[in-house]
Amino acid sequence: MVWFTSLSSTEWIFIFLFLIAYAVYVIRLYRISRALQSGATRFAVKLVLRSAYFALFLIALLGPSFGDTSREVKSIGKDIFVAVDLSQSMNATDVQPSRLEKVKYELKNIVEAFNSDRIGLIIFSSDAFVQCPLTYDQSALNLFIETLSTGLVPSTGTDFAPPLKLAMDKLLSEESTANEVKSKIIILISDGEDFGESTADVASEIEQNKLTLFTLGVGTESGSKIPTRGGFKTDASGQVVISQLNARDLKNLAYLTGGKYFEINENINDVNRMISAINDLEGELRDSKTIDVSANKYYYFLALALLLVAIDWLWSIKVLRI
What we know:
Elements (H helix, E strand, L loop, with lengths): L1 E2 L5 H27 L4 H23 L1 E14 L1 E7 L13 H15 L4 E7 L3 E8 L2 H9 L14 H13 L10 E7 L8 H10 L3 E7 L5 E2 L1 E2 L2 E2 L9 E2 L3 H11 L2 E5 L6 H9 L4 E13 L1 H17 L8
Parallel strand pairs: 3-4, 3-6, 6-7, 7-12
Antiparallel strand pairs: 1-2, 2-13, 4-5, 8-11, 9-10
C-alpha cells in the first residue's frame, strides 16, 4: 500500500493531545458507569466503535493507494521558429531601451510561456541563419537570446524571404502528418520594410503547407535615430537617418498567409496577445504511452467511517432513567 501524503509533526501533536483528552473523557464515563452500576458491555462497544471510525478518518486523510490501474499519458506540443531581424535599425531607441533589447526581453517571456514546446531561433537581415535549432532547452535558448546583436549578420537591408524559407524548410523536415502541421508556427519579428523580391512566393508556400505565421512589428511611426559608434547613422548625402516602423509589409505578409499581425510600440505591447493566440492553436501528439499507477482509495475508508459515525449517533446508551 502506498500513502498519498504523510502527517506532519504538528498534526501528530494535535492527534496526541486529542487522544489524551479522549482518554480522560473515557475514564470519566467509565467511573460514572461503575457508580451507577450500568452495564459495561455497551460502553465497551461504544469505545471500540468510536476508536474505529477515528482510525478510519486518519487512514482516509493519509490517502491509501493500492491496486494497479493503467493510465494513458500523452505528450502534446508545438514547434515554433522565431525569426529576429538584426538589421542596424533594430538599435533605434523609440522603444526603450532599444528595439532589439525590448525584443530580447520579450523573447525570454515567450520561451517561458512555451516551456513544454520546442522553440528554434533564426537571425536575419538580407540573409538568414539558424542561431538555435528546435529545442526544449530553455537555458540554451535564453543564452542565444542574450547574445543577439546587430553585428551578427551583414547589414545590407532587410529581406523577409530567407528567414521564412529557412524556417519553413526546417519545420517541414521534421517528421509530421498532414493533421499535425497546424502545430508548426513561425514568428517573424522586424521593424522595417521588406526589400526582398521573392517574399510573396515564400508566403504562398507557407499558406499551401498550412503553416501558421505571426508577424510582430517593433518600433513607432515617428521613429528615431539609429545609434552608431560615431554618433548616428547617416545616408549617402550625410543626412541623419530616421528609422520608422513600417507595419505595412508585416501586415500584408500576415494577411497573405492567413496569420495575424502584432505590434510593440511606445504605447502597445501585443506579446501577451500573441502568446494567447499561439496557445489557442492545437498542439501535435508527440508521444503516447501507458503507465501503471496506484489508485487513491481513500473514499472506501471515509465511507466506512461515516457509516460508523451514523451508527454511533443513532445508538445511544442510557445510564440514568428518570
